[in-house]
Amino acid sequence: MSQIAASTNDDGNLVEIRDVSFQYGTRTILDNLTLGIPRGRVTAIMGGSGCGKTSLLNLIGGRLRPSRGQVLVDGQNVPDLNIRELYQLRKRMGMLFQHGALLTDLSVFENVAFPIREHTRLPEAVLRNLVLMKLQTVGLRGARDLMPWELSGGMARRVALARAIVLEPMMIMYDEPFTGLDPISMGVIAKLIRELNQVLGITSIVVSHDVAEASLISDYAYLLGNGRILGQGTPTELQQSTSPDVRQFMDGLPDGPVPYTYPARNYLEDLFGENGR
Amino acid sequence: MKMFQSLGAAVLSTIERLGSAALFFFDILGNSWALVKRFYLVTQQVYAVGVFTLPIVLVSGLFVGMVLGLQGYNTLVKFGAAQSLGLLVALSLLRELGPVVTALLFAGRAGSALTAEIGLMKATEQLAGMEMMAVNPVMRVIAPRFLAGVISMPLLAAMFSAIGILGGHLVGVGLLGVDSGAFWSQMQNGVDFRDDVMNGVIKSVVFGVVVTWIAVFEGYDAVPNSEGVSRATNHTVVYSSLAVLGLDFIMTALMLGDV
Amino acid sequence: MTNRKTVEVWVGIFVAAGVFALGVLAFRVGNLTTTDVTDGYRVEARFENVGSLKVRSAITLAGVRVGRVAAIHSDPDTYQAVVVLNIDGRYKNLPTDTSASILTAGLLGEQYVELEPGGAEEYLKEGSRIKLTQSAMVLEKLVGRLLTAFIDKPADNK
Questions:
Q1: Its pTM surpasses 0.90
Q2: Which of A56, B74, B118, B151 is the most exposed place for a label (fewest CB within 10 A)?
Q3: Does B125 sit within 8 Å of A87, measured CB to CB?
Q4: Which of A168, A190, A205 is the last residue of a domain?
């Protein structure tokens, strides 16, 4: 039940989530969620495991349908689109999956070339230059003939990033881009996300539970928990928040609103209860 | 009471899966038209599916033919009908063994490979990635493999039967002394194009459709982790084999009934 | 990713081999070339009993196949079996008094129609009727006749 922080007119927000609820089976993942992703900025979505961050990305990308509410991307309500319109919209969205999701039977070059080959009829020479330029942006032009299994985790994600930007999308969604990387690779990815946003003006949504890195690169952040927004603001504002939910997450406290102890019976009862007095 | 409950649940979930498999089948067919312009995708899969299954089909065909020669001779010679060996071998292969054994080999080798490949693509989010790049994975990944299976099966079955007949000839004429002329002439007089050869081809096409359909569906529907993929591969081999044997009976009954 | 050329070559070989195998099976193993009766004409013959004669059973002349049975049905008025014979157009010189018998291939084999030409000057053509027919031998009746012959013989001692 929070308010959208940035201005609510469509000029300000590329993506708007309005009163969205989403269930997985009987579990409620998102409960009446409302938030906005401002155009041309880097927005972080943070939260513990299972709080619905990835589901949110899938709702925006149209792979999931909300049980109620609207998911507006550039003015269009995603759940209302038919297959053709959805595919048209997806061409303007880029998504970076957690492990890259590169096609394993294609080389690095072919992977980046894939969207161009599928959606355009560009001549081979133009295609080649386009691919090489994008690879250069992520610093992997020399790796173009390697196969996906020859790449480290960080390199694979960079290639996937090059592939995501090859058709110059209006926005990119990053699903846990820092998870499982060494500090150097993390730094590389963070630099790329920031640069792509500043140089190309691509709206970026970063889903992460790495508080430090996400705070460094984002302009605005939402903290999700229990299907709702626990806190929001610029990274500085969140660092200074006094809300116990926000504090526990930002400081990494083992016990707090998210309890350390899994609900159980009284300890003494459990140990000695059945075995006599 | 619990037993009935779980039985009911199992039946319901089977029907649900069958329904989603049927919808998937129509989805594949719908997406197959786009491949006419991009036939190289299908060709690639015929290579992966058909050409790689060829060695095991040829070797098995040879051995089956040779065994038929041995067993057939053994029994026919008791009735003084050893000259009909060629006919026996040809009919057994064309009508039954060719399509059925090839289908079982295909399910085990190509079918399980398809399931594993597609399941793995699902588990590593490659299919999801494709969707987000606005490429329909059913058109790009599934349909070419399905068409490749349907095209390859009848060709493989024909080659199985052909080499099996050669194997039968090798053993019958070469080793056991059946007259070569009688071997071929009895065969040519007794084998009917429509009833035997065509029916065998029809069977192999039907088997191709069913086995490939099960293989791609199990892969696409697999639980996206290593255990799920392994279980899906298991399903493919078991269900395909049962389906082939069951359909074989039904088709044979229909085909013989007509005559 | 395997070279595109290699893939196409192997697939081409594979498909060619498969089609070749199919061809061998159809023409060399089966009898595709001789299945169809070309330019045939239809002739009718009536039998008391057709035995196990089937549609598409062979019609032979001096042991050579000259046609196939096109249809078999029963005439409700005369209680006879009507067999329609489809004779290949190459054999247009069958006299109108040709006889048709239903014989068995081997001892227990399938049945076929054997034609024996007569000596008439006119030839059979489309729609003609063969008048002289010999029905199929039914095993039970044969055995019955054999038995009655043995029973009669002793009593015949004069």
A1: no
A2: B74
A3: no
A4: A168
A:B CB pairs within 8 Å: 49
Are residues A83 and A174 both part of a single domain?
Answer: yes
d(CA C18, CA C146): 56
Q: Which residue of A has its CA nearest to B141?
A: A103
Which residues are within 8 A (CB) of B12 and not within 5 positions of it... i.e. 6 or more apart? none
Indicate the number of domains in chain C: 2
Domain that holds residue B190: 20-258
Which residue out of B132, B138, B139, B145 would a mutagenesis test of the A interface target, given it has the greatest number of A Cβ atoms within 10 Å?
B132
> Quick one: pLDDT at residue B102?
96
Q: Is residue A1 part of a domain?
A: no
Predicted ipTM of the assembly: 0.81
Q: Could you tell me the residue range of the domain that residue A155 belongs to?
A: 104-168
Domain-located, residue A99 = no
DSSP, collapsed to helix, strand or coil, labels residue A244 as: helix
Helices (H) and strands (E) in chain C, counts: 3, 8
Q: Does residue A130 fall inside a structural domain?
A: yes
Q: Phi and psi at residue C42, in whole multiples of 5°?
A: -105, 135
Contact A101 B136 (CB under 8 A): no
Tens-binned pLDDT, residue by residue, of chain A (277 aa): 333 443 344 457 888 888 888 888 888 888 888 999 999 899 999 888 777 888 889 999 888 888 888 999 988 898 888 888 999 999 999 999 988 889 998 999 999 999 999 899 899 999 999 999 999 988 898 888 999 999 988 889 999 999 999 988 999 999 998 888 888 888 888 888 988 888 888 899 999 888 888 888 899 999 888 888 888 888 888 888 888 888 888 888 887 777 777 888 888 888 887 654 4
| Closest Cβ–Cβ partner in B125, B130, B133 for A99 | B125
Residues C7 and C53 reside in one and the same domain: no
Kindly list the residues of chain B whose beta carbon comes within 8 Å of any beta carbon in chain C: 40, 43-44, 46-47, 50-51, 54, 90, 94, 151-152, 154-156, 158-159, 161-163, 165, 184, 187-189, 191-194, 196-197, 200-201, 259
Q: Of B73, B51, B63, which is closest to residue B101 (Cα–Cα)? A: B63
Contact across the interface for B128 and A91, Cβ inside 8 Å: no
3-state secondary structure chain B: CHHHHHHHHHHHHHHHHHHHHHHHHHHHHHHHHHHHCCHHHHHHHHHHHHHHHHHHHHHHHHHHHHHHHHHHHHHHHHHCCHHHHHHHHHHHHHHHHHHHHHHHHHHHHHHHHHHHHHHHHHHCCHHHHHHHCCCCHHHHHHHHHHHHHHHHHHHHHHHHHHHHHHHHHHHHHHHCCCCHHHHHHHHHHHCCHHHHHHHHHHHHHHHHHHHHHHHHHHHHHCCCCHHHHHHHHHHHHHHHHHHHHHHHHHHHHHHHHHC
Rounded alpha-carbon distances, angstroms, from residue A50 to A24, A177, A232, B21, C68:
11, 17, 19, 30, 75
List chain C residues with CB under 8 Å of B41.
none
Provide the domain limits for residue C91.
37-144
